[in-house]
Amino acid sequence: MIRKNVVLNNEIGLHARPAALFVQTASKFSSNVYIELDGKKVNGKSIIGVMSLGAFHGEEITLIVNGEDEKEAMEELSRLIEHGLKDL
């Protein structure tokens, strides 16, 4: 299991399109992906879960990835967030 804190750099946080892009990317991996914010932990492959966090620009979230491709998943997901949730 890998944990990493990352700061949301996009203007609107994890809402609508950015959340969908995150979920789409997370779903490419077999590992379990979770996002944690203010003590709330959600499935990173669930659009409803990700949007329910209400994460805004500048907030620090924790990515938690566990599974056989966890290193690759963490690398790609954290890079996606650090680059403002733009399709890389």
Automatic annotation (TrEMBL):
Signal sequence, start to end: none
CDD domains documented for this protein: PTS-HPr_like (cd00367)
Keyword annotations: Cytoplasm, Phosphotransferase system
InterPro entries: HPr, HPr-like, HPr-like_sf, PTS_HPr_His_P_site, PTS_HPr_Ser_P_site
GO BP terms in the entry: phosphoenolpyruvate-dependent sugar phosphotransferase system
Domain HPr: 1-88
Gene3D superfamilies: HPr-like (3.30.1340.10)
Keyword Cell wall biogenesis/degradation: no
A single Gene Ontology CC term: cytoplasm
Pfam families for this protein: PTS-HPr
Domain of life assignment: Bacteria
Subcellular location: Cytoplasm
NCBIfam families on file: PTS_HPr_family (TIGR01003)
Known function: General (non sugar-specific) component of the phosphoenolpyruvate-dependent sugar phosphotransferase system (sugar PTS). This major carbohydrate active-transport system catalyzes the phosphorylation of incoming sugar substrates concomitantly with their translocation across the cell membrane. The phosphoryl group from phosphoenolpyruvate (PEP) is transferred to the phosphoryl carrier protein HPr by enzyme I. Phospho-HPr then transfers it to the PTS EIIA domain.
Entry protein name: Phosphocarrier protein HPr
Species of origin: Tepidimicrobium xylanilyticum
Lineage: Bacteria, Bacillati, Bacillota, Tissierellia, Tissierellales
